[in-house]
Amino acid sequence: MTSELDIFVGNTTLIDEDVYRLWLDGYSVTDAVALRVRSGILEQTGATAAVLQSDTMDHYRTFHMLERLLHAPPKLLHQLIFQIPPSRQALLIERYYAFDEAFVREVLGKKLSKGTKKDLDDISTKTGITLKSCRRQVVEEMRGSLVDNIQQHFLLSDRLARDYAAIVFFANNRFETGKKKLQYLSFGDFAFCAELMIQNWTLGAVDSQMDDMDMDLDKEFLQDLKELKVLVADKDLLDLHKSLVCTALRGKLGVFSEMEANFKNLSRGLVNVAAKLTHNKDVRDLFVDLVEKFVEPCRSDHWPLSDVRFFLNQYSASVHSLDGFRHQALWDRYMGTLRGCLLRLYHD
Amino acid sequence: MPGKLKVKIVAGRHLPVMDRASDLTDAFVEVKFGNTTFKTDVYLKSLNPQWNSEWFKFEVDDEDLQDEPLQITVLDHDTYSANDAIGKVYIDIDPLLYSEAATVISGWFPIYDTIHGIRGEINVVVKVDLFNDLNRFRQSSCGVKFFCTTSIPKCYRAVIIHGFVEELVVNEDPEYQWIDRIRTPRASNEARQRLISLMSGELQRKIGLKVLEMRGNAVVGYLQCFDLEGESGLVVRAIGTACTLDKLSSPAAFLPACNSPSKEMKEIPFNEDPNPNTHSSGPSTPLKNQTYSFSPSKSYSRQSSSSDTDLSLTPKTGMGSGSAGKEGGPFKALLRQQTQSALEQREFPFFTLTAFPPGFLVHVGGVVSARSVKLLDRIHNPDEPETRDAWWAEIRQEIKSHAKALGCHAVVGYSESTSICEEVCILSASGTAAVLNPRFLQDGTVEGCLEQRLEENLPTRCGFCHIPYDELNMPFPAHLTYCYNCRKQKVPDVLFTTIDLPTDATVIGKGCLIQARLCRLKKKAQAEANATAISNLLPFMEYEVHTQLMNKLKLKGMNALFGLRIQITVGENMLMGLASATGVYLAALPTPGGIQIAGKTPNDGSYEQHISHMQKKINDTIAKNKELYEINPPEISEEIIGSPIPEPRQRSRLLRSQSESSDEVTELDLSHGKKDAFVLEIDDTDAMEDVHSLLTDVPPPSGFYSCNTEIMPGINNWTSEIQMFTSVRVIRLSSLNLTNQALNKNFNDLCENLLKSLYFKLRSMIPCCLCHVNFTVSLPEDELIQVTVTAVAITFDKNQALQTTKTPVEKSLQRASTDNEELLQFPLELCSDSLPSHPFPPAKEHLESASSNSGIPAAQRAMTVEKASPVGDGNFRNRSAPPCANSTVGVVKMTPLSFIPGAKITKYLGIINMFFIRETTSLREEGGVSGFLHAFIAEVFAMVRAHVAALGGNAVVSYIMKQCVFMENPNKNQAQCLINVSGDAVVFVRESDLEVVSSQQPTTNCQSSCTEGEVTT
């Protein structure tokens, strides 16, 4: 006696969250059944392995049919074939587009195209495919605010949409993230920086009319950043800046002497990074530069995070007292974001 | 020109890509009705075209309106080659033809293609302008309402229940016409779909005409079936019960009046429900033909009264003159005469209903069934379906005579079915013989409840169990005792019926699904020889199925079966029998005896031991089941019951017969001789096997119950969560040299595993009950067995379930309060009458009426009511799902039941009757047979929901999948499936939405539970 055909169709489509997760994780039916058996479900329900097998097959078949719709989530909402309560629909989509942090960290900044497709297969097939489809569509079709776009078109939660925005932003600007020096950084760190940059450094950030320009950094702004060079090129200005910062921080910083000694180097590093951003290549190396020029020197002197914060605050604020410096707004736009990023990047 | 049909094509969405080059589609739409076709413009290069067409107008006869479906075809325009069809939508416009139903059909319909399945959706608006037609000789029957529901629909009242209507039409099956060899599978499928649609339309119209002739206005319990007879043709047949229904006005109108006397109203139904047992006590009030001023709107004069009494029946059946009970004999006779006179006028006094207004059912005799094996021949002239008609007429005659033999004039819960294999066809009919109350069958009938109220206060709900036949002249050996409830009338020890459990019946404990499963191998044979072989096997199968049912019933410690459905399926080399029913313990019937095992070789010691071991196992199982289903009947001493009646023990009330090619009618006595205890003899391995199989049935996991009736006896606190599903399994039998035992085991495992899978899948709904579990078996090929199950899982509140198992009275109160609206039909009249005359505050009044009208002490009643009433709606309110505001597609519920728990049906929008064919030539690519059928069934559900939503409804009740014919040819990578579904489209309102007043005090509680029933008046 063999089962030729075995199906269950509910008027409301049954979604088993556990099986869905197994399916998303790319397990085969056999593996999924084995994992479910291990979870002790048979003992809990008194079911047999055959029942579990049939149930798993059934869910997999349903998910397979749903996958076509999940590629375009709005379709899932309008389709008539599967009657699924809204809360379940949301769950399906959210889980489908959720990704493995470690994995995303790997692909971050790589151009998602044929080249990396092979790599993706190596890492993890499922997330790779969905990620690819997401990015492709975002890049091709979307206009408007990046986060809103992703949220509307993929019906994702706020958090997940922001993460996707970060991925797309990184991929678009091709930030270098794969260097050995940067390995200590998590996806969360990058996503945080990406969000700050999207908010402050893109065209969309200054002009709401230009909402769809979220993806690219504001070219004009990057050009203007050259003007900051004066802060390190003009020796008087640099000395004045240093004395202002030192006066303010004396006694408050555990690493004061190290700071005093290093001030010029650090300042030069930060300002030079800004000045170089006109070149695409240097934009790509932004994170490498930041780590090399700021994070590493501080870390080698064992600055505690609180001191870094004090320093950066004072460092940016003191510029306002430099009478000869005329680019206060530009400085704030640059340092405001950079300060946030640096603080986030400053850990082991 | 009596009608104008108007159609507007608005838009399409999610269309498939038809032009590979552009990845787009140039779609346009053809709208066809009858022979007229309109076209929309081509909407270039879009997958979401906006046609926004003008109104296409068809001027047609209403006859055509009834027969023809509206056919909408979406095509892709192609300049150089023929236009490619994307898919079609068939819309049955029947619901627009009667005034109370839908007024417009408007919505998104899935575009369906028989090869590709659903391909996008189309938004269509359909309207009909009907002109009044005064022609008396018209051929149409517009305005007759159809219901699949096998009880009086919830927002109607039955003025008269006229009786049986049937019709069948035949045609050649397009699949077997010569042209099929040259046309594409798609064209062939579409021709078939269209033909069946046409035939059902015609059938419905013809039935409607019969109803009009009978002066009815509706068909209830409408069941339409297709017989795919292959070469010999296609038969579409239907049966139903003609009724005159009155629409009950909206509950809103009644609400204010309901406020103050709420308690009383709630209470009265149970005291006042016209007692079927009136004659058994007190003076025999002659039944008067009072005119009942319920609704003065329509009163048909139908000349049937007690005057033209016809006694011709009595000698034939051999009863009537004898006294049928201790007292009330003359009364009973009178009642019988009246019923007879009412029923005598009908050719077949059959009713497809399974649930009845209170008082309708007087006595139940038992199951009657008839089967007949026929050889199919080609239908030569489609206009003369006489052969098929004659076959069915013959079977119905048999049923009628069986019923008469049981002393009954009518058959209720009647149904017909067929099983076809090659050129052999088994026709089956079954029902429950019953004695009915004539009041509903005549005019001006529903009579003096008011008077009766004063005279009859007995709380007996056992009347239907009392035997209708004469105990001195019984049609078969039976073991009778005095009714355990009223102690006045005789009852059998076991009762089998095809109907639902009457709402006023007293049940102890809970019910459960009982199935008998059986396979019999048969030699392959041709034509006559084959038919003979089958007819020879049939009696044995029936006998065994019956024995199995009886054994399993006893094993459960129960004494009655409801909703019994025995299906015999014929295949090339085997016969399958599957009987499903819901077992219950009726308080009125005696406690069932146990099962005893006796061995044939008493000298063998080890054998003895084995036997006693088995015996112990059986006894343990019975004890366990009694506990599981909470069966603890009150102990009754023998003296009260009186001395046992010296009658042989009756085991069977199933009268059945087989006839091969209309030969002679054989009647089998299925009783097991005159043994006092139920003894199973183990004399060979076969019998051993049987006993084993008895014990292999595993009870459902805790928290699960199942039944095949509408509601689960003993559970009544349903919450609003329901899940309807269809599950299909096909197994391939491995070995070629199968034995009957191996076959039985395979089949048994198949069914048991299927049930286990269902329990597992639905485990998140625990505590829950699978209701209306409907198994269908078919044998598509030599070694294939296909089982299709459709059922609905309903959650219930466990805590309250425990509470309800207190006293039978309390239970019946609750049941009535939660689900029975019919009960309120009568009392309402009473209520409004008594309203001004009672100045008491509600609570006091309730006590008054309770104590004066019932045999139960007032205090106890009060207590039970207080406990019972908040239960019903309290938990509905808590559990009802929050409205899904942000969903773009409206939720449409589907259920095989006639009601939706926790909700009230406010409107019936018309019947849904759909037939689909799906075929594939790329079976593997579509996920094999499972993938193919899974997708197809999901699509069928989607199309049903879309049609209901377009009618403005939010649910389908009495949903049934009547056919699911699946054929595969894996070698050719092909498969085909035909599905036929039907149901009633309705609008329902959640009770929680209806409740205006918050329920702080008990009175408000009562009031809200009133409103749920208050569709009345």
Q: Summed up, what is this model?
A:
The complex is a heterodimer of chains A (348) and B (1017). Chain A is mostly helical.
Walk me through the topology.
The complex is a heterodimer of chains A (348) and B (1017).
Chain A: E1 2-10, H1 17-24, H2 29-38, H3 41-45, H4 49-70, H5 73-78, H6 86-97, H7 101-107, H8 114-123, H9 125-141, H10 146-154, H11 158-173, H12 187-200, H13 203-206, H14 219-224, H15 230-233, H16 235-249, H17 256-276, H18 280-284, H19 286-300, H20 305-318, H21 328-345
Helix pairs in contact in A: 2-4, 8-9, 10-11, 11-12, 12-21, 16-17, 16-20, 17-19, 20-21
Chain B: E1 3-13, E2 27-33, E3 36-39, E4 56-60, H1 62-67, E5 70-76, E6 84-91, E7 105-113, E8 117-130, E9 145-146, E10 156-171, H2 185-213, E11 218-228, E12 234-247, H3 251-258, H4 262-272, H5 313-317, H6 329-344, E13 361-375, H7 386-405, E14 410-421, E15 424-436, H8 449-455, E16 480-482, E17 490-492, E18 495-496, E19 507-521, H9 527-555, E20 560-570, E21 574-586, E22 595-599, H10 605-628, H11 638-641, E23 655-660, E24 678-682, H12 685-696, E25 704-706, E26 718-732, H13 740-761, E27 768-778, E28 784-796, H14 798-804, H15 808-819, H16 825-834, H17 842-853, H18 858-879, E29 893-894, E30 903-920, H19 928-950, E31 955-969, E32 974-990, H20 991-994, H21 1002-1013
Parallel strand pairs in B: 9-11, 13-23, 18-20, 22-24, 25-27, 29-31
Antiparallel strand pairs in B: 1-4, 1-8, 2-3, 2-5, 5-6, 7-8, 10-12, 11-12, 13-15, 14-15, 16-17, 19-21, 20-21, 26-28, 27-28, 30-32, 31-32
Helix pairs in contact in B: 4-16, 4-17, 4-21, 15-18, 17-18, 18-21
Account of the 3D structure:
The complex is a heterodimer of chains A (348) and B (1017). With 348 residues, chain A is mostly helical. Helices cover 68% and strands 3% of the residues of chain A. Chain A contains 21 helices and 1 strand. The longest helix of chain A is centred in the first third of the chain and has 22 residues. Chain A starts with a strand and ends with a helix. In chain B, 29% of the residues lie in helices and 30% in strands. Chain B contains 21 helices and 32 strands. Chain B has 1017 residues and is α+β, with helices and mostly antiparallel strands. The C terminus of chain B is likely disordered. In chain B, helix 15 crosses helix 18 and helix 17 crosses helix 18. A 4-stranded antiparallel β-sheet of chain B has the order 4-1-8-7. In chain B, a hairpin with a 2-residue loop joins strand 14 and strand 15. Classes of the chains: A mainly alpha (348), B alpha+beta (1017). Chains A and B meet through strand 1, helix 4 and helix 5 of A and strand 26, helix 13, strand 29 and helix 19 of B.
